[in-house]
Amino acid sequence: MDLHSTLLGLILLSAPTLAVALTSSRCPADHGQALSGTAVRRSTCPLPVDDYTASRTGEWSPWTEEPQCVYPEVEDWDEDVKFCVYTFGTYNLGDGISLLTTPEAAANIAGALWNPEPAWRARKHRRRNTNSEASGEIKYRLEEIPGKGIGAVATQKILRKEVFITDLPSLLIDARLETLSERPIEEFEEERKEIYEKAVANLLGKDRVLRLASSRGDSTVDDIFKTNSFLVAMDEGGNHNGLFPEIARINHDCDPNASARFSNEKFTMTAMALRDIEPGEEISFNYIPWGLASDHRDYMTTHFFGFKCRCSLCTAPPEDIKLSDTRRRRIQELEVSLHSGNEPYESAVDKTQELLNLANEEGLHGKMQEFYLDLMGVFYDYGDYQNALVFAEMALNLAKDFEEPGGSVISGIRANIGVLRGLVETS
């Protein structure tokens, strides 16, 4: 059977993501006016404000607390970089949100915080979930999971592709501050931790954050945030990490049954089922990259999250783990070989089929979209636009199920498909 026929016969699998893109479309990054000590107007697109302008003018709207800033001195950063706490106390029906970011990024994000509709839906989830029995559309409950702390368990059947949790962020912190926790500057470290504490202290709903697990067990905001946050890749303002308290209750599994997705439009994080989840089954995310061998998985969960994974994949019989590791390392070898561009075309076809067969044997449904997009590029480089188009269309089928509708991932794949169709027609 040729490659084209083989591809069309594959079962399409799902692709979750924990790193998500945010487009600040409401407030452009270029505000056209620098911080100057003049009053900041009240609008959905406010001018940047910091501790200096706030103290000079007595005005810091739309923020409900006066900004407090820190000024880390890092050699490879701009000298005047500053990070400030911005709290919007009425967000999420009064639970509030705190941003720890630059003045410019805070002004960009402000416009996304005014829509109350997602807050009502998220609050409804949380209120119902506090009852002893789930009811209506709420299909999970939070309970103690042996060896894991609090986790989420399905109370009703959750269907594949079903969104069953909608959550809003309590904290959003510039990722550069998180990098400083990995390589701390001694004279700034205490100041960094104090500003994290300040960000949470400003929130009326602070208990939702402080009750979350911490990997080191010291219950500081720094540790809680590191253990429970998601990377939010912003188009404007750089990468941030977001803490979504309800979503954060979902525990890790190397072969999860759910994934997280951020909505640019609604500023919410949702949990979506990757497959049918049965009543009584624990709901899980994959905290680490898909497809790693057991030793790499163990290192990442231990080093970055402070626990040793006890999922079924990591506690399988030794002979099963060895076989799985062999397949996963072979997949990595095939990826490197295909990306090298040094393979004869016929060999590339054979290795592509081998890679996809191994990926299906390993159940790497969370990595299939990535595989398809990579292989689209491989066959494009070989000038095989027909098979490049097949892979692009397969990636789009997955993206339509599991990526944000109208988001940058889907629009990017559609653009590639348009280019490839043109090349197929003219070749």
Describe the overall structure.
The chain contains 14 helices and 14 strands. The protein has 2 domains: 227 residues, SET domain (Beta-clip-like), CATH 2.170.270; 111 residues, Serine Threonine Protein Phosphatase 5, Tetratricopeptide repeat (Alpha Horseshoe), CATH 1.25.40. β3 and β4 form a beta hairpin. The two termini are 23 Å apart. The strands form 4 sheets. A 7-stranded mixed β-sheet has the order 1-9-10-8-4-3-2, with helices on both faces. A 3-stranded antiparallel β-sheet has the order 7-13-12. α12 runs antiparallel to α13. The chain is of the alpha+beta class. Helices cover 41% and strands 15% of the residues.
Which features would summarize this protein structure in a list?
427 residues; alpha+beta; Serine Threonine Protein Phosphatase 5, Tetratricopeptide repeat; 2 domains; 14 helices; globular; disordered N terminus
Tally of separate domains: 2
CATH architecture identity of the largest domain: Beta Complex
CATH topology of the largest domain: Beta-clip-like
Can you give the helix content as a percent range? 40-55%
Content of β-strand: 5-15%
**Largest sheet: number of strands, sense, barrel closure:** 7 strands, mixed
Count of DSSP H/I helices: 14
Low-confidence stretches at least 5 residues in length (pLDDT < 50)? 1-25, 29-43, 127-136
